[in-house]
Amino acid sequence: MSEVITQEYTEDGKVLRRIRSFVRREGRLTKGQEAAMKECWPTMGIDYQPELLDWQQVFGNDNPVVLEIGFGMGASLVEMAKNAPEKNFLGIEVHSPGVGACLASAREAGVTNLRVMCHDAVEVFAHMIPDNSLHTLQLFFPDPWHKKRHHKRRIVQLEFAEMVRQKLIIGSGVFHMATDWQNYAEHMIEVMNQAPGFANLATDGDYIPRPDERPLTKFEQRGHRLGHGVWDIKYQRTA
């Protein structure tokens, strides 16, 4: 999971406070994760700096860029990168053991089209991601903050949707969300339907079947066995 900070505003538009959408969970790296960080970071890690990235310089080609916020331990992200060598992948995650695990998996899988960052996603978006440059933005199983009084902490809010819109390629860029909380899925739809410049890509209702490019996780497989639902949502930037 990644930590994302949003603003809360007064009626006259002044910033009241900053709300964290995710709790920062610092844990100890295993020896394997620590070794992967040391070995792989020089080629696969990107340090935060307030300068726009040049995708050609980052990846060495002009392939489409897929960015994922909060990749957890990185298993799905690595699998996607391995299955789609014609695309470039950037994952942002603040949980350092997850970054280490992702790098270890990427090294084992031999992927070369994956880069990772260990930083707050909003700061990265604000200062490092060029506008109109992302093929896809992925947000899979973010913290649902299921208590009603915590709903304001959910990452999917109008301000966040506008940030995403600016970074997606106009006319083709896609914001792909997935959640196993029906209430959060409904919240995502409600927010995105209000967000200007987006169109829902579902052809039947609000949701889409799980697309082939999103791997089925072990957690998700267990949920299916227990009868739990998963909702995939895709919106395309139109303006």
Question: What can you tell me about this protein's structure?
Answer:
The chain is built from eight helices and nine strands. Strands 5-4-3-6-7-9-8 form a seven-stranded mixed β-sheet, with helices on both faces. It has a two-stranded antiparallel ribbon with strand order 1-2. The chain has one domain (63-237): Rossmann fold (3-Layer(aba) Sandwich), CATH 3.40.50.150. It has helices at residues 31-44, 55-59, 75-83, 96-109, 121-127, 158-167, 182-194, 218-225; strands at 5-9, 15-20, 65-69, 88-92, 114-117, 136-140, 174-179, 198-200, 231-237.
Low-pLDDT parts are: none
Query: Whole-number average pLDDT?
Result: 90
| CATH topology annotation | Rossmann fold
Strand order of the largest sheet: 5-4-3-6-7-9-8
Q: What is the annotated CATH architecture?
A: 3-Layer(aba) Sandwich
Radius of gyration based on Cα positions: 17 Å
Name the beta content range: 15-25%
H/E element order = EEHHEHEHEHEHEHEHE
Oligomer designation:
single chain
List keywords for this structure.
Rossmann fold; 8 helices; globular; tRNA (guanine(46)-N7)-methyltransferase activity; tRNA (guanine-N(7)-)-methyltransferase; transferase
Describe the structure in brief.
The protein is α/β, with parallel strands linked by helices. The protein has helices at residues 31-44, 55-59, 75-83, 96-109, 121-127, 158-167, 182-194, 218-225, and strands spanning 5-9, 15-20, 65-69, 88-92, 114-117, 136-140, 174-179, 198-200, 231-237.
Mind sketching the topology for me?
Elements: E1 5-9, E2 15-20, H1 31-44, H2 55-59, E3 65-69, H3 75-83, E4 88-92, H4 96-109, E5 114-117, H5 121-127, E6 136-140, H6 158-167, E7 174-179, H7 182-194, E8 198-200, H8 218-225, E9 231-237
Parallel strand pairs: 3-4, 3-6, 4-5, 6-7
Antiparallel strand pairs: 1-2, 7-9, 8-9
Helix pairs in contact: 1-4, 3-4
Pfam family, one: Methyltransf_4
Organism: Vibrio cholerae
EC number: 2.1.1.33
